[in-house]
Amino acid sequence: MKHPQIEEYEINMWTMFVEPVTYGGKIYSRAVELEDEFLSPFKPLDIIKKGCVYFGVDYESRKKGTRQLIGYSRKIPIVIEPINHIYFFPTVSPLTPECIWISLEHVECYRRVSSKKTMIIFRNKQSHIFPVPIGTIEGQMLRTSLLKTKLLQRIESNGRKLFYQPNGPQSLNALERSREYDDDSHSKDPK
User: Fold this and answer.
1) What order of strands is seen across the sheet that includes strand 26-33?
2) What is the pLDDT of residue 6?
3) Is there a contact between 3 and 32 (Cβ–Cβ < 8 Å)?
4) Looking at the DSSP assignment, which residues form a beta bridge with residue 28?
5) How many angstroms separate the CA atoms of 164 and 157, rounded?
6) Spatial separation of the C-alpha atoms in residues 153 and 147, rounded to whole Å
7) In degrees to the nearest 10, what's the CA dihedral of 150, 135, 137, 68?
């Protein structure tokens, strides 16, 4: 293999996709980033699970949260880290050895290559053909976008709540209305 092999790989905001590859009779992962590729001795699902734990939540909790937010229970997308928009979706059941995980944020567009193949063009203009029907990619993109939207709405809603007190909205005064600006004794007459 021409890709550098590393023992530990962490999903990050530059990861475009993680796919299984057979190497020495075992299933490894090829992690493709914006400007680099790595070979890891772990399966793609293991890398996704490690990514969740790295950002403080286990994979099963992320799955449960996704189910509650969007109502799907099969081939569900996973938010690994919402602040940096690290959302991945599986191409088939995550328990299937052929499962590829694709980052929503890096997909620019996609097109049908054949009945069972789809080309994804990533934002860095690289393209890759995945052994998945276009309908699957479309559905997974929609599910992941729905997850992202619902989660961001909740984060935004909670942020707005911080600006309110139990007895009504907080009064926010602009500095221009303070006495420092209204007091003429502090200003110097340019005449």
Assistant:
1) 37-40, 26-33, 15-23, 101-103, 86-90, 78-81
2) 81
3) no
4) 21
5) 11
6) 10
7) 30
Structure-model confidence comparison of residues 156 and 181, the more confident one: 156
104 touches 87 (CB < 8 A): yes
Q: Nearest-CA neighbor of 104 among 71, 75, 137? A: 137
Tell me, yes or no, whether 52 lies in a domain: yes
What distances in angstroms separate CA 138 from CA 32, 112, 119, 128, one per listed residue? 21, 11, 12, 16
Note the pLDDT tens digit of each residue in 179-189: 554 555 444 55
Burial 82-94 (b: 16+ CB within 10 A, else e): eeeebbbbbbbeb
77 is in which domain, residue-wise? 15-57+64-158
Asked, for residue 74, whether it belongs to a domain, the answer is: yes
Q: Give pLDDT tens digits for 44-71.
A: 999 999 999 999 999 999 999 999 999 9
Query: How many residues appear in the chain?
Result: 191
Q: Give me 31's structure tokens.
A: 């992690």
| Token representation of residue 129 | 């053909």
Q: Is the residue at 166 inside a domain?
A: no
Q: Look at residue 2 and give its three-state secondary structure.
A: coil
Domain tally for the chain? Answer: 1
Residue 18 Cα to chain centre, angstroms: 13
Query: What token pair was written down for 51?
Result: 């990514």
Is position 43 within any domain? yes
**CB 142: neighbour CB atoms within 10 A?**
13
